Amino acid sequence: MFFFLLSGFFTPLYPSDNAPDVPQEEYLIMNGKVWRNLYTGVKGNAYFLTNEYLTGDITFNGRLFRERTLRYDLYNDEIILWINSSNVIILNKEMVGEFTVNYMDKRYRVVNMGTDTAGILSGYVNVYYEGPTALYVKYRKQIEMLAVDNKYDLFVQSHRIYVKKNGDIVQVSGRKALLKLLSDRKTELKNYIKQNKLLIVKSEPQTFIPLLQYYDSLDR
């Protein structure tokens, strides 16, 4: 059984209900709302990495579903799951634990931090590194009104970077903020940056990883 949202209510749809092209096993993950493209008049796209559907794995209701076809909608912070040309849904976010997307020989891992808006992080968050410390990136897309030739709205992407240290998650804006957070080994870290000619910039979150890996390798 899965659920579609009709007139504001979730309505159950069983394997016998008007979905002959859906394999039986797909009903275990098909819980969500019917997807509709509501942004045809906006330039750009709402998605992570590309407008195309990508392959990836999804942990849904505690079960791993491999090699699914999906898009990560940054504007609405949702997963769009493609079943077939007649069945495209927005997955029930409360049942998603994490997912991956594969793009240009890279795999991106995204975890669901939950819906508690009181916390520093909520919703889907990219995990770039996990060790004793961790590196998280929250991507967003917003619509900038009349940004194209003063005629068309435009999707604009932004992101924020967070580091987890000793169980606390802190937003960092760049190299200076990262060194301040890791100030207990600041001298070693500065030497490591100089020796390895590391460039740490907010626009490329992956540049934070080598320094965090080195920090985690130090005896404390």
Show the helix and strand layout.
Blueprint: E1 2-6, E2 9-13, E3 32-34, E4 42-43, E5 54-60, E6 63-73, E7 78-84, E8 87-91, E9 96-103, E10 106-112, E11 124-130, E12 134-148, E13 152-165, E14 168-172, H1 175-181, H2 186-196, H3 209-217
Parallel strand pairs: 4-13
Antiparallel strand pairs: 1-2, 3-8, 5-6, 5-9, 6-7, 7-8, 9-10, 10-11, 11-12, 12-13, 13-14
Describe the overall structure.
The chain is mainly β. The chain folds into two domains: 136 residues, no CATH class; 48 residues, no CATH class. The chain has three helices and 14 strands.
Short structural summary:
With 220 residues, the chain is mostly beta strands.
Characterize the main sheet. Answer: 12 strands, mixed
**Rounded Rg:** 20 Å
The beta-strand count equals: 14
Rounded mean pLDDT score: 89
Estimate the global geometry from the Cα principal axes. Answer: globular
Order of helices and strands: EEEEEEEEEEEEEEHHH
User: What is the distance, rounded to the nearest whole angstrom, between the alpha carbons of the first and last residues?
Assistant: 52 Å
Going by helix content, strand content and strand pairing, the class is: mainly beta
- Count of separate structural domains: 2
Helix content bin: 10-25%
Spans of at least 5 consecutive residues with low confidence: 1-18
Q: Helical stretch count?
A: 3
Give the strand content: over 45%
